[in-house]
Amino acid sequence: MGSKKRVSDSIEEAEIVEEKELSSGNEDGSAEPSKKKLKKEKKRKETETLENEDQNGVNELSTPSITHKPSVNSMERKKKRKSLDKERHLFPPGKTGLELEKNKSESITRSGGVLPEFHIGVFKDLAAADASVREAAAEALVTELVEVQNVYDMLEDKQLVEGALKLEAEKDDGLNSCAPSLRYAVRRLIRGVSSSRECARQGFALGLTILVGTVSSIKVESLLKLIVNLLEVSSSMKGQEARDCLLGRLFAYGALARSGRLTNEWISDRNTPYVKEFTSCLISLAAKKRYLQEPAVSVILEMVEKLPIEALLNHVLEAPGVQEWFEGATEVGNPDALLLALKIQEKIGADAKAFSKLLPSPYNQSSLFSADHLSAISNCLKESTFCLPRVHSVWPVLVKNLLPDSVVQDVDFASVPSTSKKHKRGRKGSSLEDIEKNLKCFFEVVIEGSLLTSSHDRKNMAFDVILLLLPKLPASCVHVVLSYKVVQCLMDVLATKDSWLYKVAQHFLKELSEWIQRDDARRVAVIVALQKNTNGKFDCITRSKTVKDMMSEFKSKSECDLFIENLMTMFLEEGHTSEEPSDQSQTTDDNSEGGSIEDMDSVGNLGSPDFLRTWVVESLASVLKHSELDPDARFHAQKKILNFLSVQGLFSSAIGTEVTSFELQDRLRWPRSTISSALCTVCIEQLQLLLADAQKGEQLQLLLSDATQKGETPHAGACGLEASDLGSYFMRFLSILCNIPSVSLSRTLNTDDDKAFKELQEMQSELSRLQAMQSQLSREGSNCDPSMDVKKIHALRYLLIQLLLQILVRPGEFSEAASELTTCCKKAYGSSDLLESSGEDEPEGDGTPELMDVLVDTMLSLLPQSSAPMRSAIEQVFKYFCKDVTDDGLLRMLRVIKKDLKPARHQDTDSEDEGDADDDLLAIEDAEESDVAETGETGESDEQTDDSEAVVGFETVNTELPEASDDDSDEGMDDDAMFRMDTYLARIFRERKNQAGGETAHSQLVLFKLRVLSLLEIYLHENPGKPQVLKVFSHLAQAFVNPHTAEGSEQLGQRIWGILQKKIFKAKDYPRGDAVQLSLLESLLEKNLKLAAKPFKRKKTASNPSKKKESASWKRYKMISSLAQSSTFWILKIIDARNFSISELQKIYDIIEAALVAYFDSKKSQIKSDFLKEIFKRRPWIGHHFFGFLLEKCGSAKSQFRQIEALDLVTEILKSLVSSNADESGQNASKKMLKSHLPKICHLIKHLVTNMPEKQSRRADVRKFCTKIFQNLTTHNLSASLLKALEPDGHAACESQLGETFLAMKQQEH
Fold first, then answer.
1. Residue span of the signal peptide, if any (predicted)?
2. What's the pLDDT tens digit per position in 220-259?
3. Please, where are the H alpha helices in 1023-1073?
4. Is the peptide bond before 714 cis (omega within 30 degrees of 0)?
5. CB atoms within 10 A of CB 1092
6. Cα–Cα distance measured from residue 661 to residue 1003, given in angstroms and rounded to the nearest whole number
7. If 621 and its partner were Cys, which of 509, 686, 904, 1015 is the partner (CB 3.0–4.6 Å)?
């Protein structure tokens, strides 16, 4: 926006307009625009003059008055313009106004003197947006004016020059000693700072600053008067016009302050009144508008920086209005007065009464940040929000006083107890302790007491002030800054995304995260402050990953150790007694991992005092997750965490909170408040997770060790199992603590649990000794017993450790399983003395179950209620022992998968033998069996059902049949283990009878099945080529087809589907060898072909099922059909690999022929033709066998649709004949087969061409098939035989229907 013209200075403005017009017009090389503007200006001025004369009724010829002057000046300007026009016509159009003026000046000064030229065009560049252009213009302006003034000062007759070079009317402006050009420049620069055009204020102020500071002829008194007179705000001014004048005065005063003239005036005359007048003018200006206060004070401070202390005391502080301004500051809330007082006090360094209540007397840092004084000035600080989003200048000054530069920044508070810190004193005597005290008082009174309890703007300012503090904030003071109320406010804002403060809080967290990037102590302090003040719930409530991301940055050993030490200290401190969070903070979220609680009921709700300690415990276990430590450093950190979790979760002290162990050379510490049972459980669970993680790392080391030994690379010498085995270290640590008299287990165990606990300890020690011995033998290259695999022993050891901890977590539930597991270990690895001492060395007999069966049963009994680390240990043991699993053990695992809460239809209570069970492996009902379904048939029912033909009310056929009784599968099972597993299943069934517990019972059974499926997946991965894979396949397929599986759990069905696809169908290996029974393959093939042919049926009772159920039923039908097809391909691959004779394959052919007969003759068969094509493509020997059968069906199938489908199948077989012609023997075999079936081919062609289908597409299929036949016969030189076999009517029909294709074959033969 351009500035408006002011009425009071209309004459000067007219002159400026005139000069601009002249300059711009001449520079363009054309005088026409200037003439037009001059005419308009002339007309306007004359009109204004006439109006003034009419209104005042003044006779200008007889009565001189003030109103007469404008007309006289106007007449003078008219004459001046006429003379300029005459001169302009005498020069070429390229001459500028400045050149004309120069010529005129030279013509005038030749008679009296010479002045250098002054280019008015530089004023235009002062308003440029480019700072470099403005600076260059200002320098050029000052250079020319200084030269002009110097020449002017040396002139003797100044009146002649002034008369000839008058650029403005004479005014009493006090610039009498200045050259006319300089006077004009000063006035124009002062007027220019009020312009809002581009960067005029900055450029004109810069020019004024340099000019006033350079030319001493310009008097300060004159400048102060000109600023007031030229930029006076009249009562008629409003809006932008008044604002431009006020800002112009501010910039003009700023130019004067920066020029240094006031300082020079005071130095030359210490009684000069101009310093007081200048200060008073600025105070008066600041009082006019709120937005002028801070910049006015900034201008005063520009002067203060240049003045000596004496001038400040005697002139600035004594200026009129300053004392009153300071006195009223605390009442009205004037942060600018506080800023001025602080800056002046900083320079004078002494008390001054003029500061009134703004600063304490006597002044020092402690009194400045005392609670009383901060309360007195809090109103000033609160009112500093008017300049948001910019932070007021008073805050950086306060921060500088609060945190002096001399403070030692890098204080490692976390690694040293606070009582032992040595506070270093700075040069000003401020210690870290004093600074922390002042900071705490500042936050309590100002931040928490004034800003956070007020409006959103002031909350925003509070976060901005904290960000100002961060760069200089010592890590030891983070807990003061991130106090409870600050963190709660931050948490409340982040929990409400629709608040406009949400982005402010996000920016704050971003800056906070960047601040802690390269400082371990800062990161630890911030994490501790955030979690301690939110009870460990910061990420949960804010629905963010702030703490988690901060924790993931701990990479090095020093960082991890520092964080671990702080977490332990936080846990051992007294319970955090803080205010309850606001209602907004009571929300939870699952996004947080570093401190997230999966089962919050185990430690109480979010408001529980144990929640923070729970977060500490979980963070200890996960702190190494993202670290990049070498094995030794990781093991050292794991030991430290293990010691702490073991002490807190497993033991309690009878003599206080600290016990010293000389054997461990360490102090065992407990918190003063008693640890709850739920928190102990959390500690044990995290201890299990830590051990499970260590087990994975150690197993990887064992694998690498094996690979190294196979490569015959010498292994480094062992330094004991405890040096790298966390499990062995834990058992030693546990044994030491159990032997300390004043330390006992935190949980009392019953007799059975106590016995099992000790047996597990002994067995684990024995296995550790055995593993160490085997490792030593392996390193020495000695022949080791294959059964003594180090990896097997290692896996068993960790299972024993997990079971030991599980006994403490859930007493009374695992003692029997622990006893069985130790017995298995003793029989497998235990020494004779151990067996004799235990008294459990029972003689082997026919009634004694296999060792692997007992181990499998024991692991199955542990699965239902075990923790995740224990399940991982079970899976590791099963992985190394699954190759020895017996058929009985495998069947018991499959038995769990087949269990169902809903009894099967037609349940037979009579026990059946295992052969009958295998005979009906997939439990497929015959299609002819009476049921509640009927086939949906339409007009074209002979065509296959498509996805688009699914009708409302259709669903899958009930594929469930009476399953074999499971009683026989329990033969040989260990009685105790079977009782435990069946007890668990029986309890699930009992809960099923209860309406309220039905859902719980079903979910428990599904969970149990999923865990057993994990074991089966491991079995299939480790034993892909065993015949038992067929048994696993049959049971899994039956469980998948069972409709109760889909109704019960989609996850269970998807898991079975995934195992079948990845571990069986797509596995690299498959069952081979003579152990694979052909009868079993025949049965499986028959069942799967029947399953693939099952139609999508509609139940009579389902009149109007929902679309969702209909879609789910159709989806399940397609999955079952896909399963049947994949199973068929897989079974045929196994059959093909055995290379059975033709006689042995006869039953296979019969099964496939039955499926083909049903496909061609029955509408109920829904086998896909693509499925049959894929069979013939993958197994060409099947297609060759049924070539003649298919040729017959091409003409005799029940429906024309099936006949066309048969043609496609024959075409697929013909393709396989072509592909087999690579060698001579293949060609002979193909020719022999075609020749043997030539009569059928001739009959089929004659039948097809004499009975062409009505549909165009089907006729095209017939022609395509005949063409393919002719090509194959021609290739094998059998076309002549075909033509000979065809009768004349056949020739005529072929020529009529096939045309050129048949004629071409005939011509080729003739």
1. none
2. 888 999 998 888 888 788 888 889 999 999 999 999 999 9
3. 1028-1041, 1043-1048, 1050-1059
4. no
5. 23
6. 47
7. 686
